[in-house]
């Protein structure tokens, strides 16, 4: 029985360690994420790394969303409040929609201000896996140097997002 208990304890410890690694705060994107291309509203493919470099020197909020996502739609007023409170921040929206038509209609319907891109292979694709996407809406905050300061925030984390942005603005 003692051997069995030790085995269970070791297995539980391994599960805890592997779970902790998967939700760890990252400070930079993987090479895979940076090289993955996204569709622009002009129907051009652009590497995620290029999108980030266009915002270098700016605090940037990335929102991963979809027009079909109820939680994303419910969070739209909060993102607009963030934009009003932090107008110098760049906002990048990455859609997980299945079609460009629905994605573009969602931008128009919700009057989302910022730059817009769509993942080519949605929630279970290469880009989503490269950023450890497990829920939308998902928010990532990048500081002026390009370092990730908040890797995983969701629609219930707006207070944390606002505080993080306020702290970055003071730097």
UniProtKB/TrEMBL annotation:
CDD domains: TlpA_like_family. It is found in: Cell envelope. GO terms for cellular component: cell envelope. It comes from the Bacteria. GO terms for biological process: cytochrome complex assembly. Residues 27-170 form the Thioredoxin domain. Keywords: Cytochrome c-type biogenesis, Disulfide bond, Redox-active center. Its main location: other. Gene3D superfamilies: Glutaredoxin. It holds the Pfam family Thioredoxin_8. This is Alkyl hydroperoxide reductase. It comes from Flavobacterium flevense.
